[in-house]
Amino acid sequence: MATITKAYGATSAKDSLKPMDITRREVGADDVKLDITYCGVCHSDIHTVRNEWGGSSYPVVPGHEIIGRVTAVGANVKNFKEGDLVGVGCLVDSCQECSQCKNDMEQFCEQGATFTYNSNDKHLEGKQTYGGYSSSVVVNKEFVLSIPENLDEAATAPLLCAGITTWSPLRHWNVKKGDKVGIIGLGGLGHMGVKFANALGAHVVMITTSPAKADDAKQLGAHEVLISKNEAEMTKHKGSFDFILNTVPVGHKMDPYISLLKNDATMVLVGAVEPLEPFHGGGIIMGRKRIAGSLIGGIKETQEMLDFCGEHNIVSDIELIDIKNINKAYDRVVAADVKYRFVIDMASLKSEMSL
Ligand code: NAP
Ligand code: ZN
Distance (Å, rounded) from C-alpha 216 to C-alpha 218? Predict the structure, then answer.
């Protein structure tokens, strides 16, 4: 039987988030149900709630950095059992048959992947998917991740999006020991990018607009900090980077960052899903430089990243909040004032709704 579940969501782009009831499907043969304990707050949640990318369908219940304990499994589920600590990221379904899915890149499913929120729900006709700002969720077993038990539960939540979104390009472009790697933007994604690039043995440079974050950047694993607004400092680093990961969440000037790349080097965009300011073709032609993009990562790669984090004791640096403070948290993320990922303690949703 479908169940009514407590959630927090927005009913329009202008609305703040507030309590609401949503429906979760009954647990099918291939499904896992979990009680959500923690959910991270990604800047994509804000873009979607505020319809900044277009295509938001209301109500929007965001949240795709989900940690929880299994409460029920379907008859075909062999890998998970009641009580297991599990995670759900940005994907909850895909066709599983196309070449992209077969190659473990479900995010690029040719039939269209089902994202954790604001996607058409294949199981509940006429409804869209609702994310992790809720007390429970039912997910196909192929999209449930195992969480290493040695890691702090709340601080693990951001790995499900901020973690995989930075891990995947660092691995795909083969970042290795000794490479000079720039991470642009010290927010949720950026701080994970710094940790991973450091763990892979790179020489890590935090490229930030916020001088006040310099000490934190070094503690997180940056070897140097480059203030992007300082032209003299930018000139010193010209032509010296093997790889740059750009997490800036909005359209921006690319030329200053392109000029930092070595010949044949790549800058990967993960942030700005919107028009960028025009950049000069000469900046990439001279030096055969590349600009690329990357979208989260597949399920297999996400599990590999989680296992790596378990072995190397890597988690996110978080500010744990009660759900009633979510709207204030959104304003702080937009103001680039998060240290370095908000995570919602979902126990606060239960107590809030019983008031
Ligand atoms: P976030 O926590 O807000 O961090 C973004 C950081 O970028 C800010 O803290 C700030 O760092 C810097 N920044 C902000 N505005 C800037 C500007 N105008 N110019 C230069 N730097 C600026 O956001 P997030 O959660 O890490 O997400 C980053 C972006 O990635 C969002 O757009 C999100 O939607 C997107 N995203 C993409 C994927 C994917 O699969 N491709 C997955 C998840 C998220 P400093 O103070 O250090 O400058
Ligand atoms: Zn995200």
Answer: 5
